Structure formats: structure tokens, C-alpha cells
Predict the structure.
Amino acid sequence: MTPDAGKRKKRLLLTVVILAVIIVFSVLLDLSWAADPLSLKDVWDVFIGQGTWGSDLIVRFNARRVVFGVFVGAALGVTGGVMQAVFRNPLASPYLLGLSSGASLGAAIAILFSVPMIPLAIVQPALAFVFCLGTMFLVYILSRAGGSVRTETLILAGVAISSLVSAIVSFLTYIAPSEKMGDIVFWSMGSLSKVTWEEMAFAIPVIIVGMILMLAQSKNLNAMMLGDSHAMDLGVDVRKVRLFLLIVSSLVVAAAVAFVGAIGFIGLVIPHIFRLLLGPDNRIILPLTAFGGAAFILLCDYVAHMASELYDVIPIGIVTAFIGAPFFIYLLSRKRSEVGW
């Protein structure tokens, strides 16, 4: 083993250990939230069967939100990493390319125009997927020029389509009856608080299968980051793999945001942090982004709830935007347009 390889291995091991600690801490922290928050020891006592009746009740109440938060954060983190590799573009993410907005539009239409005899739990994710996939292909078509996708055109196309979608959602909110207006507004800001166990039972298997399929393409993604011609020389069917990943990514994003609304910047921030620390290998980066995204969204959710004494519970999308938007500005201001690639 060369000295450089040894350093990379130690750095990877240290990153995994730190990430594991952060994951455990973020789960315990978010489970502890209440009007009078529990201590982390109280939460741990519940896990080992030694908690009080009150602490057990609080943890059970928070568990639904925390469990789905783990899967939503993991889904958005992995999807962001995949899109950055597919487009060979460090600024690509589900939120900036309008996928989250497209999925939210589908969910808003399902809420406003209910379909008789078909449960909302089926119509909502189905329409979220259709609009998410349509948004993805529209942005890709608009940004593709001369056989390649440039950073500037990709971001401009994503912003333009996202603005259009947001305008449509605003119009639907305006014409919606008062009893449905609050639900549509909820999608535009994002929150983990209203998801039910039944909705989770529908979304989580889709997210798990989708992430497995994306992680299985890590080796092909490494080849595609070298350029389409190099990837084809290595035996990768670039068009087929790219189409497959775009469809799976849209499905995962739709499942993740259909019940919680648009939550932005996780797919931008988390993959970049790990690429800066560990390099561009997607076989390493993508699994870590799943855990990093989960920890990030839980910490943001805890911050959103801790502000409840002053502003009620802040939508989690606002918290992620406060963190992610400055990071996005930082990336735009860098002289190098790509990080570690």
C-alpha cells in the first residue's frame, strides 16, 4: 500500500466514524424534542427499555417524523450525488433543477383535484413522480447544446422551470378552497410533521429500492464522469445508464417529497462535503451521502422545532435553505467550477 493510499484509507475510516457519531447524535437529539425537551440520556433509556412513561410517550410521538426524515435525507443526498455525476456538474441537485418543485406540483394537483374511488395516498405520489420526471427531462432538453450540458445553461434552465412551476403552485393555492389551501402551502415549504405511518409504508420501499439501484451504478458513474466517449470505451452504454438513472432519481425524489413537500439543498451540500473530503469515487461517496443527508435533515428538523417557542415550528425547507443557499453562493463564486473532479 502506497503512503497516499494509506492516508486515504485512514481519512475514510475517520470520516465513517465521525459520521456514525453524528448520525446517532442527530437521531437522539431529534427524538428528544418536546415543550420540555428530554435529555439524550432519557432518550437512550427509552431505547434500552428503562425510560419513564412520559419519556417513552415523547419518543414514540417523535419517532414517525424522525424515521421518515432519515429516509428523505438519504434519498435527497444520494440523488444529488447521482445527478452531479450524471451531468458532470457540481451544481446539479434535485432542488436546483426543479425536481422537488415538480413533485410538489404533482402533489398539489392531487390535493386540489381529488380522483373519486382512488385514495390520495396513491394519486399523490403517482402525480408527484409524473411531474418530477417531466420536469427532469424538460430541464435536460433545454440545457443540452452541442452534445453536452453546460453549467450555466443547466442552472438557468432549472431556475426557469422551477420559477414556472412555483407560479403554477401559487395559482393553485390562490384558487384552492380554504380547507385545502393550507395543505398546498405546506408543500411549498416542506415539513416532516404531517407524514403518517401509512404514507411511510408506501414511500420507504420505493426509496430503498431506488437507492439500491442508484448505488449499483456507482462504477458506471465513475466512468461517465470522465466523459461519454471514455465511458463508452470502457463498455458503458451511456445513454441507457443516463436514462435509467434519471428515471430512478425522479422516482426516488417523488417518493421522498410527495408527503413532506419541497426540501431543498440537501442534494447539493452533502455530496460536495464528501467529495471535498474523500475525492470523486462514487462507490465511496454515494453510500456516505445517504447517511450524511439523513443526519443533516434531522439536525435541521431539530432546529426548526427548537424555534417553536418564538415562531411556532418553522418549516424545515426554510432551515435547509438558510444553510444551503450560502453554500450555493460560495460554489458559484469559486474560480474552479468543479470540485475534486
